[in-house]
Every structure is written in structure tokens, then in C-alpha cells.
Specification:
By secondary structure, this protein is α+β, with helices and mostly antiparallel strands. It has 17 helices and 33 strands. The chain has a ten-stranded antiparallel beta sheet. Strands 9-8-14-19-18 form a five-stranded antiparallel beta sheet, with no helix packed on it. β10 and β11 form a beta hairpin. α5 (376-388) crosses α8. It is globular and about 85 Å long. The chain binds beta-D-glucopyranose (BGC). Beta-D-glucopyranose is lined by residues 347, 355, 360-362, 486, 488, 592-593, 627, 629, 673.
Length: 786
């Protein structure tokens, strides 16, 4: 097999032209197809070889015990793990007695293409069998955005050197064996045979398997049907057993007379419906897909994506690889959230089992802010899912002795699943991220129905949490002690600046919402006294500052801690969490991921320009980026303070994380938050875009390599197009009423037919910051197109 470094650089596709089995698991994640409800890893059609087989349904999980060496009050007792459900992707081929398997015979040519506009993964292979028969196999696979239960595969086999008997077995397989569990805590707990058969059946070209999970008691069904087009002697039959259903098609195919089939797949799951109801639901979804037909599904998919790209595309001129990476990032962000419909958006989307399929603050902190501009419905749905779990979050708060709601650090169904509380429960900042996503969504969309039905209550209950978590000290300052901020190399710290500032926004937003919606706040028991107490706490919020160094400590006393000995830390000891005890990381100055620097972005109004520059510089020296959530934020703040070339380096790192497998764990799924974060880095970093209360400002600045950056923004019923070149920025209103915005501090009004162009001032001249030894981002040089 020919090795090649990566994917071809193309504006609208990711193309692989050689198969490297060492990279199979990574490419399965990169080539995964999903619609937010259903996810199919990019496994080879014939099922083997595989890196990690994977088919996932949003929200479908099994419960597993969370054992502890030492019991303690409040530890969650059960974990939740995403289930690899029935695999409907498998289509095996027997060519004249030889199973098609790329490990045998000769792979004469191989190509896989993820087409970002068509929303399909296609594969074309020429294979010489060990008995020296030459065959071409082509397949095209899709997970439908328009019919969320449906996936489909077009599969074609054509012998190229004369007629040959072919047997194609198209299958549904439950309880596939999984590769052994890895030691890396970021991987997933493997569940052996988690599905129990409830019903199976098949006839004609159709089959259905229904299974349940043993502990969580969920039901899922998978069904398939086929349309077959082959030579005159083509025959087909279907059989079904508890864990496998198979349609077998035999034919004598010949050059110019291929065997072609379309496999329609449908999935459904439920915690409430009966086996019979689920069977019928899946059957109906298949019937719908067959009725639409392969061509119909393809054209609906294209139309859906055309609409998405017309609203969400980010155009980058001057770096073709990053243009591709950003579109890849937008595509996967869409795939993660598009049709979740009141389910979670996991950290890996539905592309792999990493982190057990859990959702974290990644979703509200990184994914939803981007989708708010590109796909607001998906944001409302994802936040409504949080709303549906409010009772569990209230219960968790009670068991912690707190008021309001404490959302879980990691979960699938809503219960806290983090067995390590210092970097789990104590990371209360997730509640502020949820509240922030709510206000951002409401500010941008003015969706009052959402505010009344879910938003107000989410804000109120999170504000209550903060009010009970913190206290006014003897001199009246509001302190939030003993919590963990975003940087997981510190824990249980007092007055983490990011947490306190985000809590401040949360408290104020809740008070505003309660005053705007007394009809909703009243029944929740909110009165004037309570809103006043939120405002007081926000007003008195303690934000520590180190007068000696002239910087903000990440949390109280942080800057007094001993600095990590970076010079004695060899490169192979990163990520540090796999080589040093948390005990040591926690008591030294070393930063896993943007924390104070994230505050500079999210709560920028609380810092002066000078603060930002000094703080950024200070934390650059300590930040090792052992989390993929860091580079995108460092890109944004670097651009804002004026380190535009450094911003470009970080932007590239965030955008290429999965295409280049920079963290060596893309095999477990793509990093949705980093991908979404790289798009935000384009908008908020080089575009300098900020949104506050529905008002938008820009501070564009391009790195040297980029000749143009363009994107569209939908805010409050307006569609604005922003086009940035090195010397100037142009703002064009495509739809809606005239809009006021600021460009580098200058107020401008943009109305239809009257684009506004403004010059871009040069960035301040600053000394380049330094990073820990060996941890500077790779210098970005736009490569020649491969
Ligand atoms: C990061 C967290 C993140 C989690 C899931 C961890 O490594 O430190 O901030 O939420 O990964 O992506």
C-alpha cells in the first residue's frame, strides 16, 4: 500500500488516493457521516479491516458501573457509554470464490472522497484478486440531512477482465467485536455485546433487527431494504437472525454489465415505545427513503447543503489548505448538530467513541456559538435538550448542597458521569457556558418563544447555582471558592477569573430575563429580592489582580505558585496528564488550555487593551495546549492584541487538528469543539468580530499569507456579508433593515445597496511572546497545493 502524508488539497472535498492501514482509524473519523441523529464512521464497506467500527445514534447509551477505590459522598455511581449500534454499512463481496479484502491480492487503485457540497462519501477501488481477477468496486454513502433516520449506500461491482460470478452480502450486524480498550482516559470504555435481541425478521430484499440495552433499557431498531439492478441472472434472498440479517445477491457480472444495488437504511430508538411501535417506525422510515429513491435523497442532500453553505461558508484566499480545513470543520460541526433534535451534541459528534460519547462544555462553549450564526435551529434544539435535563441538574445541585441547577460535567442522558470530581463536578463553569449560549442565541435570533419556553428557566436556575456557590466575604466581595476553571492542570482554586466573570454575566442575564419575562419568572418563585441579590453578587464579584506582576492571576494565588520546569520536560512527556500526577500539575504554574485567555475573549469588556496584551503574554509562557480547546482561543486573542502571525499559527493548528491528526487521537472521533473553534477563530480572530447584546463589532486583521477572508453573518433578521482584504474591509447588507456596527471602534451604518468599505489600521508593534520550550505552535507557511 502506498503511503501518503494526508488528503489532497481541494476547496470542497477531502480526497484520499492511497490506503494506509496505519491511518485507517483516523480516516474513519475524518470520513464519518452524520446528521446529528445518526452517525456512521467511515469504515470500509466490507467491514474489515477496520480501525474502530462505529455506528451511533444520538443519545443512545448503555449504563456501566463507575467503580471507585475509595467511596465518597456524592460520587456518581453509574457511567454512561455510547453504544456501537447495529452496523448497516456492511456490504461484503465474493468475487469468484475470493472475498474482497484489501489486505489480500493487489489494490491497483484506491480513492475515497468526502464531498462537502454533496454530503456523501464515495469510494472507487480497482482490485486484483489473489486469483488474478480484476474488479472495480464503487460505493457512495450518505447519512441524510433531510430524513434524519435514514442512510443509504449505492454499491456497484464490475469485473474488468471478463464475466465473473459475484456474490454480494448486504448486512445488518449487531454486537460487532470492538478493538481492545486503550489506556488513554480520552478513549472510551468498551462494552462487550451490549445489545439484546428483541425481534428480527426479513423477506424479499428487506430485513429488520430490534435490540434493547441490558441496563439502560433502551430499544433500537435498524432496518434495510434494497433496490437491485444487475445482469439478467441476478438473484437475491434475505435471511435474519438475532444479531445479523443478510440480503445475498448473486449474479454473473461482466465488463459493462455491473451489479448495482442501493441499500436504504433506517434507524430509530426509544426509551418509551414498544418493540412493535419501533419496528413500525423503522419500517416507515425505510418506506419513505425508498419512495424518495437514491437520486431523490442525493438531490435533497445537495439542496440542504447548498442552503447551508450559502449562509455559513467562510472563504479564505491565500492558503488553500486552510480553506479546505475550515470547510471541513464547518461540515463536521453541521454534522454534529444538524438534526440532533433535543439530544446532546457529544464532544466527538457521532464520529467515534472518544470520551464515551459524552457531551461537555465543548458544546455550549464552542459549537453552539458558531451554529447560532449558521444553523440557529440546531442551537435551540441543543439548548432545549439541556432544558429537558433540568430536573436532573436540580437534583444534582441539591445533593451537592446547592441551589438551582448543577449541570453535569460529562453525560449522555443528563446525569453526572464524571468519576473524577476535581476536573468534573468542580468545573462549575459549564453552567455559565450553558447560560452564555442561551443569551447569545437569544441576542442573535430574538427567539422569544425559546426564551419563554426554556431560556428564562435555564438562566434563572444557573444564576441560583452561582448565588449559592459563592458568598459575600467580610468586606462584601462576592467570592466563588474551590472550583475548577477551564484549565484542567489547576483544580479547586479560589476565584478563577474566567469562572467569576462568566458567573457575573450569568447572574446579570438571569436578572434581565426575569425582569423581561415576569410571567415566566413569577411561577419559578423569582422575586425582586432575588434578582437584586443576583445583581449585587455580580456587582461585587471578586476579580483577583496581581499588582506586582501587573497581570490577572488565573485564580487567586496562581501567580505565586512555582513555575513548571518546562526546560526539563522532554517533548515525549506531552500531554503532561499522561506522564505526571495531577498532584504535581495542580500546584505549579502550568496551563493545559486557555483559561484566563478565554476570559479575555469571552468577557473582553472587563479588560483594558493593556491588560489583554500583558495577560496574553504572561499566559503564553505557561500554556502547553494539552487540550484541543486551546489553540483556537489563543488564535482569537493573539489576533486581538496584535500578534497576527502567531494567531495564524494557532488557527492552522486548530483547523488541521483532525486532518493532520495532530493529537494522535483522531481515531476516537474528530474534535468538534476545536473544529468549530477554528471557524470562530476566523470570524472572531481575523474578522475581530464580537457580539454583545445583539450588537456586532469588527476589528479585522489578516496575517501576511491571506489575501482575502469573507463570511456571512445572520443576526436579528439581517444577513451581513463581510469581506476582508489586507488593506480594507467591506460590509454589505444582503437582507434586512440597516444595521449599525463598529469597525475598529468607528461606528458605521450599513444599508441595502450601500456597502461600506473602511481601511484596516496596522496592528500595534509588540514583542513576540514566548511559549514553553517545545510547545510553540508550528510556524504556518501556506504550502504549495498537493
Ligand atoms: C478538556 C476539557 C474538554 C474535554 C472534552 C479535556 O481534555 O480539558 O476542557 O471539555 O477534554 O473535549
Amino acid at each position: 500500500m502506498i503511503k501518503q502524508p494526508g488528503f489532497m488539497v481541494e476547496p470542497w472535498a477531502c480526497r484520499e488516493t492511497a490506503l494506509d492501514l496505519d491511518r485507517l482509524a483516523q480516516t474513519e473519523s475524518v470520513f464519518a457521516l452524520a446528521n446529528g441523529h445518526l452517525g456512521l464512521r467511515g469504515n470500509l464497506d466490507e467491514g474489515e479491516p477496520f480501525g474502530v467500527p462505529g455506528t451511533y445514534l444520538g443519545g443512545f447509551y448503555e449504563v456501566r458501573p463507575l467503580p471507585y477505590a475509595e467511596a465518597a459522598y456524592g460520587n456518581p455511581e453509574d457511567g454512561q457509554t455510547v453504544v456501537n449500534v447495529t452496523n448497516g454499512k456492511i456490504i461484503r463481496l465474493l468475487l469468484e470464490d475470493e472475498p474482497f479484502d484489501v489486505r489480500y491480492g493487489q489494490l491497483r487503485s484506491h480513492q475515497r472522497v468526502l464531498d462537502l457540497r454533496a454530503g456523501v462519501l464515495s469510494r472507487t477501488v480497482m482490485w486484483l484478486s489473489p486469483t488474478e481477477r480484476l474488479v472495480r468496486v464503487t460505493s457512495t454513502r450518505m447519512a441524510s440531512f433531510t430524513q434524519r433516520a435514514v442512510a443509504a449506500i449505492m454499491y456497484e461491482v464490475e469485473p474488468l477482465d471478463g464475466a465473473a460470478p459475484v456474490v454480494v452480502q448486504s448486512e445488518l450486524v449487531a454486537n460487532e467485536p470492538l478493538p481492545p480498550m486503550q489506556q488513554d482516559p480520552r478513549a472510551a470504555a468498551a462494552l462487550a455485546a451490549p445489545l439484546r435481541s428483541e425481534l428480527f425478521g426479513g423477506d424479499g430484499y428487506r430485513a429488520l433487527l430490534v435490540h434493547s440495552t441490558k441496563v439502560s433499557g433502551l430499544l433500537m431498531g435498524a432496518g434495510m431494504d434494497h433496490r437491485i439492478d444487475g445482469p439478467p441472472d441476478t438473484e437475491a434472498s434475505t435471511e435474519a437472525f438475532a444479531d445479523i440479517a443478510r440480503t445475498t445477491i448473486t449474479a454473473t457480472a461482466a465488463p459493462g454489465k455491473p451489479l448495482r444495488l442501493v441499500k436504504f437504511l433506517a434507524y430509530g430508538w426509544s426509551s418509551q415505545r414498544t418493540v412493535g411501535a419501533l419496528r413500525d417506525q423503522v419500517g416507515a422510515a425505510i418506506a419513505g427513503a425508498v419512495h424518495t429513491g437514491w437520486e431523490g435523497l442525493l438531490s435533497d442532500q445537495r439542496a440542504y447543503l447548498d442552503r447551508f453553505w450559502s449562509q455559513a461558508d467562510i472563504e479564505i484566499d491565500g492558503d488553500a489548505e486552510l480553506q479546505q480545513a475550515v470547510r471541513f470543520a464547518l461540515f463536521h460541526t453541521l454534522q454534529a448538530g444538524a438534526r440532533g433534535e433535543q439530544r446532546l451534541i457529544p464532544a466527538k459528534g457521532l464520529t467515534g467513541p472518544g470520551y464515551d460519547g459524552h457531551t461537555f462544555w465543548d458544546t455550549e462553549g464552542f459549537v453552539l456559538p458558531l451554529l447560532t450564526y449558521a444553523r440557529p435551529h440546531a442551537v435551540a434544539d441543543a439548548l432545549r435538550w439541556r432544558y429537558l435535563t433540568l430536573d436532573l441538574a436540580r437534583e444534582r445541585a441539591r445533593s451537592l448542597g446547592l441551589q438551582g441547577a448543577a449541570f453535569p460535567w460529562r453525560t449522555i442522558h443528563g446525569e453526572e458521569c464524571s468519576g473524577y470530581w476535581p476536573a468534573g463536578t468542580a468545573a462549575f463553569h459549564i453552567n455559565a457556558a450553558i447560560a452564555h449560549a442561551v443569551t447569545h442565541y437569544q441576542d442573535v435570533t430574538e427567539d422569544d418563544t425559546f426564551a419563554r419556553e426554556a431560556g428564562v428557566e435555564l438562566l434563572v436556575e444557573t444564576a441560583r447555582l452561582w448565588r449559592s456557590l459563592g458568598h459575600h466575604d467580610a468586606v462584601g466581595r462576592f467570592r466563588i471558592d474551590g472550583v475548577t476553571g477551564p484549565d484542567e492542570y489547576s483544580a479547586i482554586a479560589d476565584n478563577n477569573v474566567y469562572t467569576n466573570l462568566m458567573a457575573q454575566l450569568n447572574l446579570r442575564a438571569a436578572a434581565d430575563a426575569a425582569e423581561r419575562h415576569p410571567e415566566r419568572a413569577g411561577p419559578l418563585g423569582v422575586d425582586d429580592e432575588e434578582t437584586a441579590s443576583w445583581r449585587d453578587a455580580a456587582q461585587a464579584m471578586l476579580i483577583p489582580y496581581d499588582e506586582t506582576l501587573g497581570v490577572h492571576p488565573q485564580a487567586e494565588a496562581f501567580t505565586e505558585h512555582e513555575a513548571w520546569d518546562f526546560d526539563s520536560t522532554p517533548p515525549e512527556n506531552y500531554p503532561l496528564l499522561l506522564h505526571y500526577p495531577y498532584f504535581d500539575l495542580y500546584r505549579k504554574q502550568v496551563v493545559k488550555q486557555a483559561d484566563l485567555v478565554l476570559a479575555l475573549f469571552m468577557c473582553g469588556d472587563s479588560f483594558s487593551e493593556e491588560d489583554k496584551a500583558r495577560d496574553f503574554d504572561y499566559y503564553e509562557r505557561l500554556t502547553v495546549r494539552d487540550s484541543s480547546l486551546s489553540a483556537c482561543i489563543q488564535a482569537i486573542v493573539a489576533a486581538e492584541v496584535g500578534h497576527v502571525e502567531l494567531a495564524y499559527d494557532y488557527f492552522a493548528e486548530a483547523a488541521l487538528l483532525d486532518l493532520d491528526d495532530l493529537e494522535h487521537n483522531t481515531r476516537d472521533g474528530v474534535h468538534i469543539a476545536s473544529l468549530a473553534g477554528s471557524c470562530i477563530a476566523a470570524l472572531a480572530g481575523f474578522g475581530g468580530m464580537r457580539e454583545r447584546g445583539g450588537e456586532i463589532s469588527f476589528m479585522p486583521r489578516l496575517p501576511m499569507a491571506l489575501t482575502r477572508l469573507a463570511f456571512g453573518i445572520r443576526c436579528r433578521g439581517r444577513t451581513l456579508k463581510v469581506e476582508i482584504t489586507p488593506p480594507e474591509a467591506t460590509y454589505t447588507l444582503i437582507a434586512g433593515d440597516p444595521v449599525e456596527l463598529t469597525h475598529h471602534g468607528e461606528q458605521v451604518t450599513v444599508s441595502r445597496g450601500r456597502p461600506v468599505t473602511r481601511p484596516i489600521p496596522p496592528p500595534p508593534t509588540l514583542e513576540a511572546p514566548t511559549q514553553p520550550r517545545g510547545r510553540a505552535p508550528a510556524r504556518r507557511r501556506a504550502p504549495a497545493v498537493r
